[in-house]
Design goal:
By secondary structure, the protein is of the alpha/beta class. The protein has two domains: 6-174, Thiolase/Chalcone synthase (Peroxisomal Thiolase, Chain A, domain 1); 179-327, 3-Layer(aba) Sandwich (Peroxisomal Thiolase, Chain A, domain 1), CATH 3.40.47.10. 33% of the residues lie in helices and 23% in strands. The strands form four sheets. Strands 1-7-6-4-5 form a five-stranded mixed beta sheet, sandwiched between helices. Helix 4 (93-101) links the parallel strand 4 (78-82) and strand 5 (107-111). The protein is globular. 50% of the residues are buried. Bound molecules: oxa(dethia)-CoA (UT7). Residues 31, 35-36, 39-40, 115, 154-155, 158, 220-221, 223-224, 227, 257-258, 261, 285, 287, 315-316 line the site of oxa(dethia)-CoA.
């Protein structure tokens, strides 16, 4: 095991200005503010402007993280983008971002792990740093989920939003930042949360468009049950790997999919809800962007600071899930 430790040096996030409230949604699908609020905790979400793409959200988030870390784009060796909504099937959004930032010497690639994309990318980035391959890495979770939202289906239309979050990681000089990180997958449950068409299985055609197959399709209740169980066990395992307890955490940052999932996971971990970061009310589920946006908001609002111990846990399509314990 390498003795190199990896630290988060700076965070940044960006959400589009356009707000879609529950009241606005009531004009689009058969729903109520009361249903959305009580079942999900969501009050509003942000929507990227027409013709903008994931890299347009990721670029300002990355610039803020670089500024917070005191690094120039040319210092970057690696850019990783966790996303389920890349600008294009290829090239990668990371390559587009590299050009936008002017990060001339950085290598960039995307990572597909749906809502778990940020923690998957963080783990991969940290491994490169621990192995001594690269020094300065930019890790991003960014999504334009509203581009694949079915605006005719009330069960999913109310859930998603757009945004991006970023961190800069470097080898730690005197302290450990990423204390433990674990990734998990179960490909047997793919059918419960996926976008059917647009890939090689079902390339875009008039038929796939007519059948409305280029949108997020989810068995919400099944996903909910798995999310609560697997997020809890993942967090428990990662706390144990980091040799700390849930009581040692200053803040839990769970994937912001549904307030009821966060409350259920916190209860099982015996973490009081006051120690759980929640912004799902303002942004809805932004998939891979949810944890890095929350982390950035927690840092910038002063809710966590130098020395704070954070647990984070995510869950998404694949299924994929992941957990980390990080000292800021
Ligand atoms: O980020 C990846 C991970 N994703 C998640 O973690 C999402 C996990 N799932 C969930 O968060 C919840 O399952 C949902 C919020 C998606 C749905 O909540 P639920 O309590 O599981 O509701 P449900 O799907 O079982 O639907 C209950 C009822 C249904 O009516 P009937 O069949 O009982 O008459 C739905 O038709 O609520 C109805 N319903 C709605 N009513 C008003 C579903 N969506 C809506 C809506 N407005 N938007």
């Amino acid at each position: 095991m390498s003795s190199v430790r990896v630290c988060i040096r700076g965070t940044g996030s960006y959400v589009p200005e356009n707000v879609l409230t529950n009241q606005d949604l009531m004009r689009i699908v058969d729903t109520t503010d009361e249903w959305i609020t009580t079942r999900t905790g969501i009050k509003e979400r942000r929507i990227a402007p027409d013709h903008s793409a994931t890299s347009d959200l990721a670029t300002p988030a990355a610039e803020k993280a670089l500024a917070a870390a005191g690094l120039d784009p040319v210092d970057l060796d690696l850019i990783l983008v966790g996303t389920a909504t890349p600008d294009m099937v290829f090239p990668s959004t990371a390559c587009i971002l590299q050009a936008n930032l002017g990060a001339k010497k950085a290598v960039g690639f995307d990572l597909s792990a749906a809502c778990s994309g940020f923690l998957y990318s963080l783990s991969v980035g940290a491994s490169f740093l621990k192995g001594g391959v690269y020094r300065n890495a930019l890790v991003i979770g960014a999504e334009t989920l509203t581009s694949i939202t079915d605006w005719t289906e009330r069960r999913t239309a109310v859930l998603f939003g757009d945004g991006a979050g970023a961190v800069v990681i470097t080898p730690a000089e005197d302290e450990s930042c990423i204390e433990a990180i674990n990734l998990y997958s179960d490909g047997n449950l793919t059918h419960l949360l996926h976008m059917p068409a647009g890939g090689s299985r079902m390339p875009p055609s008039h038929e796939t468009v007519d059948k409305n197959l280029h949108v997020i399709t989810m068995e919400g209740r099944e996903v909910f049950k798995h999310a609560v169980k697997l997020m809890t066990s993942a967090m428990e395992e990662t706390l144990s790997d980091a040799d700390v307890t849930a009581g040692d955490l200053d803040l839990l940052i769970p994937h912001q999919a549904n307030l009821r999932i966060m409350e259920a996971v916190a209860k099982r971990l015996r973490i009081p809800i006051e120690k759980v970061f929640v912004n799902v009310d303002r942004y809805g589920n932004t998939s891979a962007a949810s944890v890095p946006i929350a982390l950035d908001e927690a840092v910038r609002s002063g809710r966590i600071g130098k020395g704070s111990l954070i647990g984070t846990v995510v869950f998404g399509g694949g299924f994929t899930w992941a957990s980390a314990v990080v000292r800021i």
